[in-house]
TrEMBL record, chain A:
It comes from Papio anubis. It comes from the Eukaryota. SUPFAM superfamilies: Glu-tRNAGln amidotransferase C subunit. One of its GO terms (biological process) is mitochondrial translation. Pfam families: GatC. Subunit of the heterotrimeric GatCAB amidotransferase (AdT) complex, composed of A (QRSL1), B (GATB) and C (GATC) subunits. Allows the formation of correctly charged Gln-tRNA(Gln) through the transamidation of misacylated Glu-tRNA(Gln) in the mitochondria. The reaction takes place in the presence of glutamine and ATP through an activated gamma-phospho-Glu-tRNA(Gln). This is Glutamyl-tRNA(Gln) amidotransferase subunit C, mitochondrial.
From TrEMBL, chain B:
This is Glutamyl-tRNA(Gln) amidotransferase subunit A, mitochondrial. The keyword Mitochondrion applies. Residues 147-166 are annotated as: Disordered. Allows the formation of correctly charged Gln-tRNA(Gln) through the transamidation of misacylated Glu-tRNA(Gln) in the mitochondria. The reaction takes place in the presence of glutamine and ATP through an activated gamma-phospho-Glu-tRNA(Gln). The lineage of its organism: Eukaryota, Metazoa, Chordata, Craniata, Vertebrata. The gene is QRSL1. It comes from Papio anubis. PANTHER family: GLUTAMYL-TRNA(GLN) AMIDOTRANSFERASE SUBUNIT A, MITOCHONDRIAL, TRANSAMIDASE. Its EC number is 6.3.5.7. One of its GO terms (molecular function) is glutaminyl-tRNA synthase (glutamine-hydrolyzing) activity.
C-alpha cells in the first residue's frame, strides 16, 4: 500500500518541474518527469518500482552526460568492430527444424501447437489506475 | 591429480595412469566438499559420469578424441546446454531447459570433455562481483587458502574467519572459483566488459578473452552483441591455448565469426627470448585509484621485460577516461534490446496475470528480473528514446570508434602487446563490496578491462604474485586483433618468469586421495 503513496509523493514535485525538453536544450537530461517514467515503463515493460530506481536512472544519465566533453566532429559511429569485413550468409538449405515439440516444452501455456497469449490490444494501464505492486 | 594442469592430466589419461571415470568421481567429490563456495548452480553428475564412461571406452580402444577427451570442465550458466537447466542466475530463466547446446559447449563435448556443471554468475552477467545472482554470491577459494589465512592471523584486527570471505570478482565468478578450487581443469566464462579477466585476476587464474569474431557466440545468452565473447579460465596459459584450439573457428550459426584461416591447433611456441618484442604501457591506465601493490607489480613486470631485452614503450590511449562512460551507454542500450525477448510466452518465467499481453509481460518481467537488470533496461531505453538517440547512443558509438582507433594507433607505433593492470586491487571482502551498488562497482572494477571489449581485441589476465595479504594479483596483456596466438605466446613466457604460487587448500583435500602433486614452490621472481 505504501508504494502507492510513494508514487503519489513522487509525482507531485516532478509534475511541478520543467517538462522534459527536446534535444535542442543543451541541459536536456537530468530531469526525469513523470511522463518520462511512464513512457519508459511502457516501452521497456519493466517498472521502476521505487524512488531509488529513479534516482539510479538520474545518476546513470548524469554519468552518461560526461560523453558531451568528447569532440566527435567528423567521426562515424562504430557499430561493429568487424565493419571492414563481409558478412557470410549460409546457403539457403533447410538442415534443421521439425522441433515443435521440443520448443513447446519450455512454455507454461500451450494449446496443441500454439503458445497461448493473453489478448493483445489492451494497452498497459496508466500509473494512476494500476494496482499498487509490492515493493521489490 | 586434481592439482595438475590440463596438459598433464591429458597425458596421464593417455598413458592410463588414471581413467576418466576416476577423474570424474574425484572432481564430483571435490565439488561436494566445496559446495560452500557456491560456485556451481547445477552439478550435472549423471551426465558427467556417462560422458566419462564413453571417454573411457575410447581410451581403451586407443581412439581418444584429443587433448580434451575425459577432461572435466565447467560452463558458465549463461551458455545454453541441451537438457541441463540454464538460468543465468535469474528468476526469469529458472527451470528453463534449453533444447540445444551452445556452439562452444558442443565443441567441448565433441572433443570428449566431461561437463561437470553450470557455474554461478551475476544475474545475466551484469556485475563485477558474482554477488547479484538469485543463487547467492560466490566465495573466493582464496578466502580459505593457507596463504591468506596465515597473513590474517598476523593481523590483530582480523575478525571471525568466515564472515570476512572475499568475492571472486565477476561476472564469471563461479567458473573462476570452480577452476581455482580444482574441481575442473578449465571453465567457460563470458567476457563483455572484463567478466572473465576480472575473476581470473582475483582467483589467481589465467583468464583469456579471445578476439571478437574468433569464437562463436551462438548459444551464449547475449548481453551486448557487439562486445560479448566466450572467455576461457584455466590454471595456465598452455591449457587456455588447448581450449582455444578446440573452440576457435567460424560457425555458420553465428554470422559474426570470421572466416579467415586460423592456425590450428593452437600450439604455443616457447619464446626463447623477448628481445624482438615491443611492450606498450598505456600511461592513462595509471590512475590514483590503482592500489600501490598492483602499481608496483605492473612496474616490476615492465622492468622484467626490459631487463630481458624487450623494448618497453610508453603509449597513449587518450580516450581512456571516456571508455567506461561509453561502455555504460552502449551496454545498457544493447541490454534494453536483448532483454526484450523475455516475455514469458515461449520460455522462462511467466506470471499469473492474464488480462492482456502487456500486463502479462510487465508483471513477468518485474518478477523475473532483479533491480540491476531492470535498472539497465530502463537506462538503455532512456538512451534509445528518439530525443536522446543522437546525443547518447550515436555519440557513444562515435566515442567507441575513437577508443578503437586509440588502440590501432598504439599498435601501429610498433607495439606488439600492451601491458596493463587487470583490476584496481586484490579481491575485497564481500561485506566491503556490497557497500556500493552494482553500477558503481562495475564502473570502478571494469576500468582496465572494458576498453578491450569495445575494440574487440584479445586480452589475457595472468596471475603474477600474491599481495601482502596473501591474495592473487593479475596483470593484463592486450594483443592485436586476431593475433591471439602471439598474445598467448608472450603471456606464456611471462607466466614462466613469475612462477605464481599454487593455492594451498590442503584442509579441503585431506580426505581425497588427490594430494596436490607437482606443487610449485613459491619461488617468485616478482616478490613483494
Amino acid at each position: 500500500m505504501w508504494s502507492r503513496l510513494v508514487w503519489l509523493g513522487l509525482r507531485a514535485p516532478l509534475g511541478g518541474r520543467q517538462g522534459f525538453t527536446s534535444k535542442a536544450d543543451p541541459q536536456g537530461s537530468g530531469r526525469i518527469t513523470a511522463q518520462v517514467i511512464e513512457h519508459l515503463e511502457r516501452l521497456a515493460l519493466v517498472d521502476f518500482g521505487s524512488c531509488e530506481a529513479v534516482a539510479r536512472l538520474e545518476k546513470a544519465i548524469a554519468f552518461a552526460d560526461r560523453l558531451r566533453a568528447v569532440d566527435t566532429d567528423g567521426v562515424e559511429p562504430m557499430e561493429s568492430v568487424l565493419e571492414d569485413r563481409c558478412l557470410y550468409l549460409r546457403s539457403d538449405n533447410v538442415v534443421e527444424g521439425n522441433c515443435a515439440d521440443e520448443l513447446l516444452q519450455n512454455s507454461h501455456r500451450v494449446v496443441e501447437e500454439y503458445f497461448v497469449a493473453p489478448p493483445g490490444n489492451i494497452s498497459l494501464a496508466k500509473l494512476d489506475e494500476q494496482e499498487p505492486f509490492p515493493h521489490s | 591429480m586434481l592439482g595438475r594442469t590440463l596438459q598433464e592430466v591429458s597425458a596421464a589419461l593417455k598413458q592410463g595412469q588414471i581413467t576418466p571415470t576416476e577423474l570424474c568421481q574425484k572432481c564430483l567429490s571435490l565439488i561436494k566438499k566445496t559446495k560452500f563456495l557456491n560456485a556451481y548452480i547445477t552439478v550435472s553428475e549423471e551426465v558427467a559420469l556417462k560422458q566419462a564412461e564413453e571417454s573411457e571406452k575410447r581410451y581403451k580402444n586407443g581412439q581418444s578424441l584429443g587433448d580434451l577427451d575425459g577432461i572435466p570442465v565447467a560452463v558458465k550458466d549463461n551458455f545454453s546446454t541441451s537438457g541441463i537447466e540454464t538460468t543465468c542466475a535469474s528468476n526469469m530463466l529458472k527451470g528453463y531447459i534449453p533444447p540445444y547446446n551452445a556452439t562452444v559447449v558442443q565443441k567441448l563435448l565433441d572433443q570428449g570433455a566431461l561437463l561437470m556443471g553450470k557455474t554461478n554468475l551475476d544475474e545475466f552477467a551484469m556485475g563485477s562481483g558474482s554477488t547479484d545472482g538469485i543463487f547467492g554470491p560466490v566465495k573466493n577459494p582464496w578466502s580459505y587458502s593457507k596463504q591468506y589465512r596465515e597473513k590474517r592471523k598476523q593481523n590483530p584486527h582480523s575478525k571471525n574467519e568466515d564472515s570476512d570471505w572475499l568475492i571472486t570478482g565477476g561476472s564469471s565468478g563461479g567458473s573462476a572459483a570452480a577452476v581455482s578450487a580444482f574441481t575442473c581443469y578449465a571453465a567457460l566464462g563470458s567476457d563483455t566488459g572484463g567478466s572473465t579477466r576480472n575473476p581470473a585476476a582475483h582467483c589467481g587464474l589465467v583468464g583469456f578473452k579471445p578476439s571478437y569474431g574468433l569464437v562463436s557466440r551462438h548459444g551464449l545468452i547475449p548481453l551486448v552483441n557487439s562486445m560479448d565473447v566466450p572467455g576461457i579460465l584455466t590454471r595456465c596459459v598452455d591449457d587456455a591455448a588447448i581450449v582455444l584450439g578446440a573452440l576457435a573457428g567460424p560457425d555458420p550459426k553465428d554470422s559474426t565469426t570470421v572466416h579467415d584461416p586460423i592456425n590450428k591447433p593452437f600450439m604455443l611456441p616457447s619464446l626463447a627470448d623477448v628481445s624482438k618484442l615491443c611492450i606498450g604501457i598505456p600511461k592513462e591506465y595509471l590512475i590514483p585509484e590503482l592500489s600501490s601493490e598492483v602499481r608496483s607489480l605492473w612496474s616490476k613486470a615492465a622492468d622484467l621485460f626490459k631487463s630481458e631485452g624487450a623494448k618497453v614503450l610508453e603509449v597513449s590511449l587518450p580516450h581512456t577516461s571516456y571508455s567506461i562512460v561509453c561502455y555504460h551507454v552502449l551496454c545498457t542500450s544493447e541490454v534494453a534490446s536483448n532483454m526484450a525477448r523475455f516475455d514469458g510466452l515461449q520460455y522462462g518465467h511467466r506470471c499469473d496475470i492474464n488480462v492482456s499481453t502487456e500486463a502479462m509481460y510487465a508483471a513477468t518481467r518485474r518478477e523475473g528480473f532483479n533491480d540491476v537488470v531492470r535498472g539497465r533496461i530502463l537506462s538503455g531505453n532512456f538512451f534509445l528514446l528518439k530525443e536522446n538517440y543522437e546525443n547518447y547512443f550515436v555519440k557513444a558509438q562515435k566515442v567507441r570508434r575513437l577508443i578503437a582507433n586509440d588502440f590501432v594507433n598504439a599498435f601501429n607505433s610498433g607495439v606488439d602487446v600492451l601491458l596493463t593492470p587487470t583490476t584496481l586491487s586484490e579481491a575485497v571482502p564481500y561485506l566491503e563490496f556490497i557497500k556500493e551498488d552494482n553500477r558503481t562497482r562495475s564502473a570502478q572494477d571494469d576500468i582496465f578491462t572494458q576498453a578491450v571489449n569495445m575494440a574487440g581485441l584479445p586480452a589475457v589476465s595472468i596471475p603474477v604474485a600474491l599481495s601482502n595479504q596473501g591474495l592473487p594479483i593479475g596483470l593484463q596483456f592486450i594483443g592485436r586483433a586476431f593475433c591471439d596466438q602471439q598474445l598467448l605466446t608472450v603471456a606464456k613466457w611471462f607466466e614462466k618468469q613469475v612462477q605464481f604460487p599454487v593455492i594451498q587448500l590442503q584442509e579441503l583435500m585431506d580426505d581425497c586421495s588427490a594430494v596436490l602433486e607437482n606443487e610449485k614452490s613459491a619461488s617468485v621472481s616478482l616478490k613483494q
